[in-house]
Amino acid sequence: MPTSQWRLRKVRPAVQAPLAVFGAGDVGAAVAHALCRRGEAVLLIESAQPTSPRRGMCWVDAVFDGSAELAGVRAQRVACPQEAAALLAQRRAVALAVDPDVAFWLQALGVDIVVDARLRKHAGTQPDLRQLGAGAVGIGPGYCAGYNADVVVESAWGDDLGRVIALGPTRDLAGEPRPILGAGRERLVYAPAAGVFTSARRIGDAVQAGDAVAAIVPADAQPIPVHAPLTGVLRGLTRPGVTVPLRAKVVEVDPRGDPALCFGLGERPQRIAQGVLDAVDLLRARLAPPPSVHAAHGGALPPHALDIRGMA
Question: Looking at the domain 3-171+267-311, which fold is it?
């Protein structure tokens, strides 16, 4: 369908407006998974070259393969809002849009709440999500409720992990990764140069410390080998063929040595996802019209109800 025709109307696949989640990495996947499980229509948005290494715990492979399953829920790549609307109407899968015209897709699908689950922890600033929808949820460092999001969710390990903050910021980026059998940042490998990531290994493969598990191929330069930092199994391995920037996280070795721990939903992403569910409930309550207005019109919204939503 031509773009001009799409601009004439919004596609609403269900009574409840869809939500959009940015980022198909382990946190974004857990958020979208939780929302889909409870019956929400979810549009997942990802770039064409995602570097997320925990591919057994997220949906980035669907960017390349067309679909992927995670803990019983499927993410399906869609090419246009009409295809997304048809998929979301079934409430059985997450619709994945790759490098879309974000504003156009959100408007066409009638998305009312957006969630940024990319956790761009080292970004200088985060975008003002409030420009994208009636409700906006920011996750992690750089987001502040009332400034660049309507509500925010804490992403740092600790008692506050997953806490919904209705006014004020999340914690600043600090500290080291949570240790696993005493191994913190030392279990991770970061790209020594920008280039194309290559590997013949798979998620869950057993490795020994020092094994060559991948390589970075810079433009007009020789491949740079990437070695396993310790003995264990590959929990993280960026998709081969993806172009990675300097210092991108590309490999993670789990010293526990159990391949089963490299797949499924992680503890931290699930706790963040629960916080997002609570945040969405809070925003839905804010966006809902007063009961007296709704009841007075027999369940239908009067024309001025849009003004009430806007002032919520």
Answer: Rossmann fold (3.40.50)
| Mean pLDDT across 33-60 | 97
Is pLDDT larger for residue 91 or for residue 63? 63
Residue with tokens 């979301």: 88
How far apart CA 253 and CA 177 sit, in angstroms, is 13
Query: CA-to-CA distance for 103 and 247, rounded, in angstroms?
Result: 30
Average pLDDT over residues 254-274: 97
Q: What pLDDT digit, counting tens, does each position of 241-254 carry?
A: 999 999 999 999 99
Q: Can you tell me whether residue 31 is helix, strand or coil? A: helix
Domains 3-171+267-311 and 185-254 share a fold: no
Split at pLDDT 50, 70, 90, the class of 304 is: very low
Angstrom distance (rounded) from CA 255 to CA 235: 9
- The arithmetic mean of pLDDT across residues 237-243, rounded, is 98
Q: 30 to each of 37, 56, 277, how far by Cα in Å?
A: 10, 12, 11
- Report which of 292, 286, 293 is spatially closest to residue 310, judged by C-alpha positions: 286
Can you read off the two tokens belonging to residue 285? 């309550």
109: CB partners within 8 A, 6+ apart: 10, 11, 12, 13, 18, 20, 43, 81, 84, 85, 88
What is the CATH code for 185-254? 2.40.50.100
Q: How many residues does the chain have?
A: 312
The domain spans of the chain are 3-171+267-311, 185-254
> Would you state the structure tokens that stand for residue 190, as one six-digit string?
């970061």
Average pLDDT over residues 135-159: 95
